[in-house]
């Protein structure tokens, strides 16, 4: 039986009257990449902060590699590595100095720490920048350094909170490569939060979709997409119409933006029948699109809205924080 590295039961976190995390339960297996996917404010970071012992829950239980976050927080911290959204490096020190200090905190002997630093910097392809001051690094290099720092003590579980926020597409690809290498080469258990659909779908073995503090779906990417059927058709009529009832329609749902979402077995076969139906009921179709289901469609289907991609705002905030730290 595969070992549970993370086990969460009925977890609740409140801030005054706000219920940030609302009675969630899940488990993460050894060697699994598990993703929390949801919009900003959904409760992703609050959850990760409880899992790494930075916040105490109001109720519920969390076990990390068998240890309780409430009764054995020190043991939990020995077993985890963390890459936060906010930069945690000392930008006035070199890459080597940052890792040397971090390794010392975890009790590395001086005779072994240099070898370990070289190994980790080689893994994230920064060995040639070992003696460079971190404030001269690009945003992507800093994120790779954050990963290097989190790996210094060889954790059982790596937590990544929005690991590619603020990065350009090419640098995101590089970070994704390192995440997949950590699973393949080190059999590392990885828990990541993200609001990027493509990131979750590419990296995760299983995905928990979280919204307003609750997990609304949890499964593999392929099984999640099956929630909305094999093909999806989006219709918009000239005048407001209710969902049509036809034998070839698996399900139908009215969306807040006025469109109608229809799940069908085969869009190519269903479209002529839809136009025939529209003619029969004297309804004018002004817009029609169809496609294979994506995780975005799953989120729309479950919540009635799209994940608000605040990447531009987040990128600006991340860059602003980085500039302030460098100054």
Topology:
Layout: E1 4-15, E2 18-29, E3 33-37, H1 44-51, E4 59-64, E5 67-68, H2 73-78, E6 80-83, H3 95-105, H4 110-123, H5 139-151, E7 157-161, H6 169-186, E8 189-194, H7 197-203, E9 206-211, E10 214-219, H8 221-225, E11 231-237, E12 249-254, E13 260-264, H9 267-280, E14 285-291, H10 295-303, H11 311-326
Parallel strand pairs: 3-8, 3-9, 6-7, 7-8
Antiparallel strand pairs: 1-2, 1-4, 4-5, 9-10, 11-13, 11-14, 12-13
Explain what you see.
With 327 residues, this protein is α/β, with parallel strands linked by helices. It has two domains: 4-221, Rossmann fold, CATH 3.40.50; 230-292, Alpha-Beta Plaits (2-Layer Sandwich), CATH 3.30.70. The chain is 37% helix and 27% strand. It has helices at 44-51, 73-78, 95-105, 110-123, 139-151, 169-186, 197-203, 221-225, 267-280, 295-303, 311-326, and strands at residues 4-15, 18-29, 33-37, 59-64, 67-68, 80-83, 157-161, 189-194, 206-211, 214-219, 231-237, 249-254, 260-264, 285-291. A six-stranded mixed sheet has the order 6-7-8-3-9-10, with helices on both faces. Helix 3 (95-105) crosses helix 4. It is elongated, with a radius of gyration of 23 Å. The N and C termini lie far apart (51 Å). Mean pLDDT is 89; it is low at 309-327.
């Amino acid at each position: 039986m595969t070992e549970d590295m993370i086990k969460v039961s009925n977890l609740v976190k409140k801030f005054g009257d706000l219920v940030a995390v609302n009675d969630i339960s899940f488990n993460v297996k050894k060697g699994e990449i598990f993703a929390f996917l949801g919009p900003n404010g959904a409760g992703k970071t609050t959850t990760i902060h409880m899992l790494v012992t930075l916040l105490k829950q109001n109720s519920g239980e969390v076990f990390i590699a068998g240890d309780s976050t409430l009764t054995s927080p020190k043991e939990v911290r020995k077993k985890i590595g963390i890459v936060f959204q906010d930069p945690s490096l000392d930008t006035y020190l070199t890459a080597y100095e940052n890792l040397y200090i971090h390794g010392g905190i975890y009790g590395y002997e001086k005779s072994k720490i240099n070898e370990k630093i070289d190994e980790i910097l080689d893994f994230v392809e920064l060995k040639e920048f070992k003696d460079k001051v971190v404030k001269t690094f690009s945003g992507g290099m800093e994120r790779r350094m954050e990963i290097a720092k989190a790996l210094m003590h060889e954790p059982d579980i790596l937590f990544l909170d929005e690991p590619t926020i603020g990065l350009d597409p090419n640098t995101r690809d590089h970070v994704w490569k390192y995440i997949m290498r950590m699973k393949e080469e080190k059999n590392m258990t990885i828990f990541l939060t993200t609001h990027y659909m493509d990131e979750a779908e590419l990296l995760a073995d299983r995905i928990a979709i979280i919204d307003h503090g609750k997990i609304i779906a949890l499964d593999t990417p392929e099984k999640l997409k099956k929630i909305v059927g094999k093909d999806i058709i989006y219709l918009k009529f000239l005048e407001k119409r209710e969902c049509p009832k036809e034998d070839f329609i698996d399900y139908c749902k009215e969306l807040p933006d006025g469109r109608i979402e229809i799940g069908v077995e085969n869009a190519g076969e269903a479209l002529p029948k839809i136009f025939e139906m529209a003619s029969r009921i004297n309804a004018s179709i002004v817009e029609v699109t169809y496609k294979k289901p994506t995780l975005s469609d799953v989120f729309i289907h479950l919540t009635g809205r799209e994940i608000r991609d605040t990447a531009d705002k987040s990128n600006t905030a991340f860059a602003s924080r980085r500039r302030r730290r460098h100054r």
